[in-house]
Design goal:
Largest sheet: 6 strands, mixed
CATH architecture of the largest domain: 2-Layer Sandwich
Oligomer: single chain
Number of domains: 2
Number of strands: 10
CATH topology of the largest domain: Ribosomal Protein S5, domain 2
Number of helices: 10
Order of helices and strands: EEEHEHHHEEEHHHHEEHEH
Radius of gyration: 20 Å
């Protein structure tokens, strides 16, 4: 008779990310593109509950409070399904997702949810050693952003984004997220960038992540005199051309004191980092007055996430 274990319950805040610069390099043989970016977690988050009943036959229950995402295409469902099969686990698993992060917004919400599920499998499965490399391999197969969320905090991303290296966490700063009612297809954005006159960034040393590292130094040491153009996102040219309001929003955030303001990922979220809560609140109020959805949040470090994980692993799993 298989050994039976008490139920295990984990509750995670699956944080969104922003990109503190993003360069798109050459096309890879596998069809993806090499990129160079700095990822950063912020406080806007989905809530993900995962429950395990060990020693039972293998089954998976899934629910999401957004009906259009309550299906087997959801990355969180796919993460749980792949983990069960690849790790050969006999358990009943229940995953519940409550969404706050919008889709098609360049914030990585689906990827963050999937990573939360994988971390739960890694930390909550008793009686079976789970190799980190196995979890990482599943994350890479699920999507280019998923491996980053296994690390989170401030981290560089290269290759197709799956080669993630932690860098020193940025200090706490308020972040204003402007969330227009626009979804930008990442596949379209890559095609449009490749077809644009600018084309793709050449893979020369100036395009490597070291350039972003130099630009981040003022943030890491609290220097408030950060040049607005010190961090770049290659998608801005084609995305702003198709959706001019996004370029206007970036300009408005810069005018209101953001250092920097950027498109996150391929969009549609435009964000601004501010030095003071008062500046962030004033900027958010002015943008919201135009009828746009705005969230004030903050940079979240790996230390903050680690403390949250330690507390949430004791959650009872009841909604």
């Amino acid at each position: 008779m298989p050994r039976s274990y008490p139920p295990q319950h984990c509750r995670f805040l699956a944080c969104a990310k922003i990109n503190l610069g993003l360069r798109v390099l050459d096309r890879r043989p596998d069809g993806y593109h090499n990129i160079s970016t700095v990822f950063q977690t912020v406080g806007l988050a989905d809530e993900v509950d995962i429950s395990f009943w060990h020693g039972e036959s293998r089954s998976l229950e899934f629910s999401c409070d957004r009906p259009d995402l309550d299906n087997t295409e959801n990355l969180a469902w796919r993460a749980a399904d792949m983990a069960l099969r690849r790790l050969d686990i006999q358990a009943r698993v229940r995953v519940r997702v409550r969404k706050q992060i919008p889709t098609g917004a360049g914030l990585g919400g689906g990827s963050s949810d999937a990573a939360a599920v994988l971390v739960a499998f890694e930390s909550a499965i008793l009686g079976k050693r789970v190799r980190r490399s196995a979890i990482h391999d599943i994350a890479c197969e699920l999507g280019s952003d998923v491996p980053y969320f296994l690390t989170a905090g401030t981290a560089s991303g290269t290759g197709r984004g799956t080669d993630v290296v932690p860098v020193p966490d940025l200090p706490r700063k308020p972040v204003v997220l402007v969330l227009p009612d626009i979804e930008v297809s990442t596949a379209w954005a890559y095609r449009a960038l490749a077809e644009s006159r600018e084309g793709l960034t050449r893979p020369d040393p100036d395009s490597k992540i070291v350039g972003f590292g130099g630009s981040l130094i003022p943030f890491q040491f609290g220097d408030r005199d950060v040049r607005p153009g010190s961090l770049l996102n290659d998608f801005e040219g084609v995305v702003f051309q198709r959706f001019p309001i996004l370029g206007e929003l970036k300009g408005k955030l810069l005018a209101l004191g953001a250092r920097p303001a950027l498109l996150s990922g391929s969009g549609s979220t435009v964000f601004g980092l501010f030095d003071l809560d008062e500046l962030a609140e004033a900027a958010a109020a002015e943008v919201a007055a135009d009828g746009l959805r705005v969230k004030i949040t903050e940079i979240v470090s790996r230390t903050d996430l680690g403390m949250q994980l330690a507390m949430d692993e004791d959650a009872d799993g009841r909604a």
